[in-house]
Amino acid sequence: MKPDSSLSRKIRSSSTSQAEQNQDLLVKEQNIYYEIWNSLTPDEQYVLYDLTHDGLVNTRNLPIIHRLYKKGLISDNENTFTAHGDSFISSLDIFNERFSHFIDKLAETENLKKLEEEINATGTWHKYRTPLLITLTGILLFVFITQQQTYGEVIGVLGSIAASLPLILRLMNTFFTNRSANKATAA
């Protein structure tokens, strides 16, 4: 028995129109995500990027995290969110997995890496790094100049570490290579 050609045409046109509808929905969804993204401040964008990128956020960003939570862009998987406390930090996630993927793709095309560098450049470590290193260098120089015995001991320890470093690296390489090989054979 021959299949009904009008029925097969209807099925094909139905699946084609379904694919077109799905594509239209994806485009609309992307547009909504762009609108949401563009409505955020650079700090809010960075916190969302940070959460998407490694699943962690800095506790110093609590006001921003709280704003994003109120906007519904961050969900609390364990319902432990409090505005003051660190217990919720590990349970936060982006409200929607597709929005998370959108942020990942956006990170490739936009300058989110540049934004991350700018934020890190104004951080606490950046402010205190140079004075701390100068102070530490001064203390070390003072100790080495005034305490010749300490200088000799430190040089001896540094020499031992330098001599044993290739052996340690070789052992670590062997260990991790064996673990990778075992995982590959187990799979």
Describe the structure.
It is a single chain. The chain is mainly α and 187 residues long. Helix content is 76%, strand content 3%. The protein is built from seven helices and two strands; from the N terminus they run αααββαααα. A two-stranded antiparallel sheet has the order 1-2. Helix 6 crosses helix 7. The longest helix is centred in the C-terminal third of the chain and has 39 residues, at 148-186. Mean pLDDT is 75; it is low at 83-88.
Detail the topology: elements first, then pairings:
Elements: H1 5-39, H2 42-54, H3 62-71, E1 74-76, E2 92-94, H4 97-109, H5 112-121, H6 124-146, H7 148-186
Rg from alpha-carbon coordinates: 28 Å
Give the amount of beta strand, in percent.
Answer: under 5%
Instruction: Measure the end-to-end span.
Output: 47 Å
Percent of residues in helices comes to over 70%
Strand line-up across the major sheet = 1-2
Structural class: mainly alpha
Task: State the low-pLDDT regions, or none.
Answer: 83-88
Task: Briefly summarize what is shown.
This protein has 187 residues and is mainly alpha-helical. The chain contains 7 helices and 2 strands, in the order αααββαααα. It starts with a helix and ends with a helix.
